[in-house]
Write a structure and sequence with these properties.
By secondary structure, this protein is mainly beta. It has three domains: 122 residues, Immunoglobulin-like; 166 residues, Cupredoxins -  blue copper proteins (Immunoglobulin-like, Sandwich); 133 residues, Cupredoxins -  blue copper proteins (Immunoglobulin-like, Sandwich), CATH 2.60.40.420. It is built from five helices and 34 strands. Bound molecules: copper (II) ion (CU).
Length: 509
Amino acid sequence: MKRKVIGSIAIVILLLIGGVVFLNSPFNSSGDKTLPEGVKQGDLSILEVNAQEPKERPVKTFNLTAEESEWEISEGKKVNAWTYNGTVPGEPLRVTEGDYIKINLKNELDVPVTIHWHGMLLPNKMDGVPGLTQNAVQPGKSFTYEFIANDAGTYWYHSHQHSSKQVDKGLYGSLVIEEKEKEYKKEQSFILDEWAVYQEKRDITNMGGMMKGAMNGNGEADTEQMYDTFTVNGKSGDAVEPFIIKEGETARLRFVNAGYQQHLLAFPKDAMRVIEIDGEKVKNPDGTSNVLEIAPGERIDVAYTRQSGEPTVIRETGGENADGALIPVVSSEGENPVESKQSTSSTSSDVATGTSFGSEEVIFNEEPEPDVTYDMELNMGMDMGEGVAFQINDQVFPNTPPIDVKEGDIVKVNITNSGNMNHPMHLHGHRFQVASINGKKYDSPIVKDLIHVKPGEAYTIYFKADNKGEWLFHCHDNNHADRGMVTIIDYKGVYSPFSLGGEYNNQPN
Ligand SMILES: [Cu+2]
């Protein structure tokens, strides 16, 4: 009798589990006319909001093929890379503000890919996040991205499918939106990255390295363990292409950090002035810094003036892999750059970072009254069976609490890093204003889409919910994102018709 009761309970439990599995399965919502779970009658699909058309705009079309390539990082050091059009970085894309861009992505890899347009304010369905804004583009298949290139500035593109691996393997490139009237005639883009060339990439679950890093306290312990070679535009050390500029000339240098480690570049003294950060022009009260710190995912543009006619080198400072990241500066091709006596020593006061300057144009003239406030605590934890987890409010994606907004809301996010690793948090589809650090208000706030939150730091940011859709807010150390540090800006009244996993293997991190 007792046994029979237990048997019945077991059957009920199995039925319950079966029901839950069914509700969560992608087959529940695909193909039939029932709305996905949690979607209300009258809600719009993200495919139906904020569409853009070229109208009278010039249309610029590009073709990018994701393909496998053997890539030479330095003489004799080849890596198996995944590329857009055969090179690392992929083909540079350059348009003029106001253009309408069309990019045809063809996937010739044997894994699915996408393209995310980092920093671009565009319609949600063009954001390139598999399982949220589209299905991952399958091997042999194509997808066309199209949007208006509205704001001049430095941007970049990269795959957002399994991005921890795919960006690591080279699926990235620069996107420059030029001003109609250019201030600098001469310019060059530099994408920084790091690779594991000499060793198998060590597993992030290496707790020994983490503990060591926790003690050395620069917040970069995990990435320092994992990578051994720094690159500039896909090349390392002697293989980096020299930058040609004459004495007295000034050029705009556009830096993008496509890696997962912060990079510190030392310039000859008084040669560099920061002019733009994350696509926003900055006010520059002084130009005394000669070291530039660029966080993973961040873009920083500088005006660089060649002082003496002597060849020189802009180079990474500090860190055991620093030798790889350098830019020889010469007057003509074939010239041999010699190391000048520039000061590569730095104190924290002369390092320019992504928050050292205020923006020329701000979103809010004074601190606004928020409609939504979200406290975001970043920390590290243990995941049963998975090792280290990187958490938002003690949860890993997709279980992290979303930021629920409705169109028009002013959203305040208090971000606190309670762990001992750096977290460059990147918001898709919006720009935010950084109002304060550790409770201290900025006199001259900056507008960005990525904030590098170091251990013990707390930032308050504000943004306007003015771009309906489902948008990621995640750590751009994609290894951290892969292990959970991701949440979603979830607009009321819209839903994503896509789902994670499933037959398309949608895996955004
Ligand atoms: Cu992180």
